[in-house]
Amino acid sequence: MCPLTSAGMRALHFSEYGPASVLKVAEMPEPHAGPGQLRVTVRASGVNPADTYVRAGRFQEWIPLRLPHVPGVDAAGVVDEVGEGVTTVRVGDEVFGITDYAQMGGANAEYAVLAAWAPKPAALNWEQAGGAAGNIETATRVLDRLDVQHGTVLLIEGAAGGVGTTAIQIAVARGAVVIGTASERNHEFIASLGAIPTTYGPGLAERVKALVPGGVHVVLDSAGSGSLPHLVGLVPSPERVVSIADANAATYGVHLSRGSGPGADAPSFEGIAAAVELAEQGRFTVPVAAVFSLDEAAAAHELSESRHARGKIVLKP
Ligand SMILES: NC(=O)c1ccc[n+]([C@@H]2O[C@H](COP(=O)([O-])OP(=O)(O)OC[C@H]3O[C@@H](n4cnc5c(N)ncnc54)[C@H](OP(=O)(O)O)[C@@H]3O)[C@@H](O)[C@H]2O)c1
């Protein structure tokens, strides 16, 4: 561990693209809140699959970074700096939120600057809140695009992960019927969140027909496992499917929704406050798959890369 000076902070970073072993913890310059932003002393932050893609250099073409780069897009903590024009929070408030999406990083550190946030609900502990905001924004963005509301029958491909578990709960709270695909070991888990579980892979159409004879209205593909040709067959037209994970989505007439980079959809930051309300009503939680220290971040990235985490992976500074 590095000694700290008043102008420095402990931060996870990488100075070259590569495998999880390029992640190091060192002293880095502190960031400061710009206009419309705030800074938190981080209590917990999230690991998203995108952090592993950024680290591996897969996003270099469309999100150019200046190295060294601090990964992480969501965090929870205590406000210690308030930027110009911010009137809704004060130093000492407990919040959770998202860093500037365009930078694709900054959260896995001792201090993080947030660009969108909401008060941390008491119903979520620090680990849960630290990994929540990015998935809430993504799930809200896609569920809005699919117009998921009371009575909608939604199928989520890849329902046991960070986005899937979030989308199940938000959709159920809207009054939708949610079918979630997951491996069998996760069926009870996603059922506990409100989904009707089934297995992904061959025979999906038959299994879905048996579960909802009236059919599925819309589909969220959060797996990106190449199943879009089958998912498109579940609905009347491909516009009723949105993928967040399949780079070949356009081939099947499916919209690929992204929160940043060229061609991104407008982010749905208002979903964060809406999820706070649900959490306070006991209708929204964040299943945490594992908590690691910053020093163990390589193991956290490797768990994310396994693509079988059950819920959210979180880092503690
Ligand atoms: N475009 C965007 O705005 C955006 C935002 C966030 C995330 N994403 C992308 O969305 C994807 C999901 O993100 P996440 O954070 O939810 O990931 P995650 O937490 O790593 O999700 C892993 C889940 O995927 C499931 N899974 C693995 N193989 C599967 C398959 N063949 N079919 C169906 N499900 C499968 C696993 O369930 P089992 O263990 O039960 O198999 C596991 O629970 C990632 O590719 C991520 O990069 C995109």
CATH topology of the largest domain, by name, is Quinone Oxidoreductase, Chain A, domain 1
Largest sheet: 7 strands, mixed
Which residue ranges are poorly predicted, with pLDDT under 50 across at least 5 consecutive positions?
1-5
Number of helices: 9
Helix content: 10-25%
Give the total of beta strands: 15
Beta-strand level of the residues, as a percent range? 15-25%
Q: Return the CATH class of the largest domain.
A: Alpha Beta
Q: What is the overall silhouette?
A: globular
- Mean pLDDT value: 95
In the residues, how many domains can be counted? 2
The quaternary organization reads as single chain
Bound molecule types: NADP nicotinamide-adenine-dinucleotide phosphate
The second-level CATH architecture of the largest domain is Alpha-Beta Complex
> How widely separated are the two ends?
11 Å
Radius of gyration equals: 19 Å
Protein name: NADPH:quinone reductase
Organism: Micromonospora avicenniae
GO molecular function, one term: oxidoreductase activity
Keywords: NADP
